[in-house]
User: What shape does this take?
Amino acid sequence: MRLGVLASHGGTNLQAIMDACNQGRLDADVAVVISNNSNSTALLRARKGSIPAYHISSANPQPTLEDFAIQDALQKHQVELVVLAGYMKMLGPETLVSYRNRVLNSHPALLPKFGGKGMYGTHVHEAVVKAGERVTGVTIHLVDDQYDHGAAVAQCIVPVLPEDTVADLEERVKERERLFWIEVLQKISSSEIDLDNVATLAAEAK
Assistant: This one.
């Protein structure tokens, strides 16, 4: 399974996926890495691993050009599944159409709780702690044209401990997220999870 990974900053999930591929724990290869941030560590991780890496800027005055550039890079490298691993932008319509039901994102909470525009990173964990939740988790979901809206592919639970600070909870969720990506991607690679079926069942449930 050829993966295209998009990341905006540190790329820790990318590194976990790269390591799992290299160690044979994930039947996949990272074919290309794309970032909207020229200074992202994700690009450095990719280049260190001899993986093609592209900076495709979001500062372009014509957003459609960015969309086409991402689509072109993914297709050039024969990507079969797109992974948004800490990518802080919405994908454009051309890329979403080309990879319909083949784009995944992870969210650090149990959607539909604590999702939507502005709910990312530390903001999510602050909201979870403030709400007094006893559990949170990670959701890996299909990506559509709305924030945190696509059908959930898989979820896992992470406990919220009484003594947790926001930083404590964030670190625990991040650690679980890195492992969860590998678990879910391997199930997709082995056909244990069928993404088209996930999308169909979600549409029927509406």
Observations:
- The radius of gyration is 16 Å.
- The mean pLDDT is 94.
- Residues 18 and 30 are 7 Å apart (CA to CA).
- The longest strand covers residues 135-142.
